[in-house]
Design goal:
With 676 residues, the protein is α+β, with helices and mostly antiparallel strands. It has 5 domains: 48 residues; 103 residues, Beta-Lactamase (2-Layer Sandwich); 103 residues, PAS domain (Beta-Lactamase), CATH 3.30.450; 162 residues, Beta-Lactamase, CATH 3.30.450.40; 152 residues, 2-Layer Sandwich (Heat Shock Protein 90), CATH 3.30.565.10. 43% of the residues lie in helices and 24% in strands. It has 17 helices and 23 strands. β3 and β4 form a beta hairpin. The longest helix has 55 residues. The N and C termini lie far apart (163 Å).
């Protein structure tokens, strides 16, 4: 019984110990369940946090590449839930792991995060990616990745780099000097190549030095600083003129502008631009001298030309200046040479002149020759060879867009010509052109007076002579004789009336007072009336009117268009043999009425085709005036036609003669001309 009691006691103790162990195990299991629940809760909370983040987050197995988790942002961006898929297939569209996969890097350093940037081709976005290994609830070490979308930042950076590159390019290539100085010390921090070229320094010779080295005096340095930076401190851009000194000691006139690099923050320094005004100031001085020459010109054309040549020599600092021109078919030279050499006319064997060979066909461009010994044929020019000139500048002199001569500057030694000298010569050549045009107009006016005197003398002589005959022999004349004399008087009076009317028209045209009273005009019948007038005036030519239509109506001033037709017909009969055919042709061309007056006369040479429409111009000169007229008819005809919105010209006819044509607008189809 005792033994049994002892066994029983041991059993009770063991049971008690087992119950204690069981209680401990139960407590441990309870703690494990609580820990697991806490871990699961924390995991769920963490996943909920991941889902609330707008950046892409996913978790994958680094060995199998299986996607274990993706957040809401990733699902939205890809438009699906790729959980359970393979990361390289779902995110990159590949059939095998990516060449740039970072799993080996993470496995090699499991405790360190890895940062990298990547462009995803499927999304066409730029990402900053953060990778690291974390513990997963099932005990695995898995890859955690967060991808921050930096596309806009990248674009901004690229835009900034492009802008910086552009600004840098502008900075390097700018035609003005650009630089930066510290403030208030005015130490040079940076300069562009233009500043270096302007000053003759290398960049390293300027950077880090005080700007005082650029100024000729301490006073100038302080003056510029006081006037420039007092305004800059008010956040304004200030500009001053200053003097700088080049490395070689030459003085520069500059225009300096400056402002703070960062408005309101002088610590960042000031940026400046500088423009070299030296050439501008030099050119301005040339212009002022040329202007004084032009303003000093008087009424005498020849004196003005001589003054222009003298001032050309003075302003261009050349040995001599000359005006080459062609006078009555001969080459003439007006120059600054002394005595009789100041005006020479070349002989027939001396007309191989350089200026004409070089300037013709250059479309108003000058010729600058620094060394005439290198110019083929220069030695054949009699003026150059006679005076042994070695350099010259030639500027064309034009009148009415036609080159009539040239202004030449000559020097006895080879020399270059500056841009300022070239511009001054251009202005002086222009002044010479105006004087030459004035001279030509004076000569034309003299010719006109000679022609007008001749034209007026004839009808006046006729009227005076026949009037005297009638007065002295009235009783001796029969009816027919009196009628013939009175008819001659009437013809002379009509001729005087036409000349007076023509002069009045020119006066109105010159003052812009020619009035057009437009209405409905039938052009074919108007042409026939003009032909009838020519016949009535006694012209014996064979006139013919040809039209593509019975009627061609226009909106025009009937009297003025009749005047144009009469002028062209009279011109045709005066310059073609009596009895020859003169034809008036009317037709529609490209929606316009074209009227042509065709003759078989002597024709017009090419150089006179445009000039015949100029006021007072005649193909013959005043001394050999064989055809009646004052040189005004074609000028008036052109003004009338152009006043109607038309055009007028002449051209040679096959087989000889001239065709004068003019066009006038026709009314649009479906409309009629204005009121009759």
């Amino acid at each position: 019984m005792g033994i049994e009691d002892e066994d029983y006691s041991r059993i009770e103790e063991e049971l008690s110990r087992l119950r204690g162990k069981l209680a401990e195990l139960q407590e441990a299991a309870s703690r494990a369940r609580r820990a697991e629940e806490r871990a699961r809760s924390e995991h769920e909370q963490l996943l909920a946090i991941f889902d609330s983040i707008d950046e892409i987050i996913y978790v994958s197995d680094p060995f199998s590449h299986e996607i274990l988790y993706v957040n809401r942002a990733l699902k939205k961006r890809f438009g699906k839930d790729p959980t359970g898929g393979l990361c390289y297939r779902e995110f990159q569209g590949l059939d095998a792991p990516c060449d740039f996969c970072t799993n080996p890097i993470l496995l090699d350093k499991p405790e360190a995060p890895y940062y990298w940037e990547y462009h995803n081709p499927l999304l066409d976005r730029e990402y900053l990616i953060i990778d690291r290994l974390i513990d997963w609830p099932d005990g695995r070490r898995v890859r955690f990745e967060m991808a921050l979308d930096i596309t806009e930042r990248k674009r901004a950076e690229e835009s900034l780099r492009a802008m910086e590159s552009e600004i840098s390019g502008i900075y390097r290539a700018a035609p003005v000097g650009i630089g930066r100085v510290s403030y208030p010390e005015r130490v040079i921090l940076r300069v562009n190549p233009r500043v270096c070229k302007m000053l003759g320094y290398r960049e390293e010779e300027l950077v880090g030095k005080s700007a005082r080295m650029l100024y000729p005096t301490e006073e100038e340095y302080r003056r510029v600083g006081d006037s420039l930076y007092r305004r800059v401190e008010e956040n304004l851009i200030e500009t001053v003129e200053a003097r700088w000194v080049r490395k070689d000691g030459r003085m520069l006139e500059v225009l300096l502008s400056s402002t703070f690099l960062v408005p309101g923050d002088p610590t960042a320094g000031a940026v400046f631009t500088v423009l070299d005004l030296s050439e501008y100031k030099k050119a301005q001085a040339y212009r002022e001298r040329v202007n004084r020459v032009i303003l000093g010109l008087g009424a005498d054309v020849m004196e003005n030309m001589t003054r222009i040549l003298e001032k050309t020599r003075e302003i261009l600092a050349c040995d001599h200046a000359a005006y080459h021109l062609r006078v009555r078919g001969r080459e003439a030279v007006l120059s600054t040479l002394a005595g009789e050499e100041g005006f020479t006319v070349l002989t027939a064997g001396e007309e191989d002149v350089l200026w004409r060979r070089l300037l013709e066909g250059r479309n108003r461009l000058p010729v600058l020759l620094e060394d005439l010994s290198e110019v083929p044929g220069a030695e054949r020019d009699p003026f150059i060879s006679r005076h042994d000139f070695r350099a010259c500048m030639l500027w064309p002199v034009e009148v009415r867009k036609e080159m009539v001569g040239c202004l030449a500057a000559y020097h006895g030694k080879p020399r270059s010509w500056s841009r300022e000298e070239e511009e001054a010569a251009w202005a002086l050549a222009r002044a010479l052109s105006l004087e030459q045009e004035r001279l030509q107009r004076e000569e034309e006016l003299k010719d006109f007076i000679d022609v007008a005197s001749h034209e007026l003398r004839h009808p006046v002589t006729v009227i005076k002579g026949y009037s005297a005959t009638l007065r002295e022999h009235w009783d001796e004349l029969d009816g027919e004789g009196r009628f013939n004399l009175l008819s001659a008087l009437e013809e002379g009076a009509d001729r005087l009336a036409r000349m007076a009317e023509m002069l009045l028209d020119v006066s109105h045209l010159e003052r812009g007072r020619l009035r057009l009273e437009k209405g409905q005009v039938e052009a074919v019948s108007l042409a026939r009336r003009a032909v009838d007038e020519m016949r009535a005036r006694g012209f014996t030519h064979r006139f013919r009117v040809v039209s593509t239509a019975e009627e061609l109506r226009i909106d025009a001033d009937e009297g003025r268009i009749f005047q144009v037709m009469a002028i062209l017909l009279e011109n045709a009969v005066l310059y073609s043999p009596p009895g020859s055919e003169v034809e008036v042709e009317l037709k529609e061309v490209d929606g316009r009425l074209q009227v042509s007056v065709l003759d078989r006369g002597v024709g017009i040479c090419e150089k006179d085709r445009e000039r015949v429409f100029e006021r007072f111009y005649q193909v013959e000169d005043a001394l050999h005036h064989s055809v009646p007229g004052m040189g005004l008819g074609l000028y008036i005809a052109r003004e009338i036609v152009e006043g109607h919105g038309g055009s007028i010209w002449n051209e040679p006819r096959p087989g000889g003669g001239t065709a004068f044509r003019f066009t006038l607008p026709l009314p649009p189809q479906g409309t009629t001309a204005g009121p009759p």
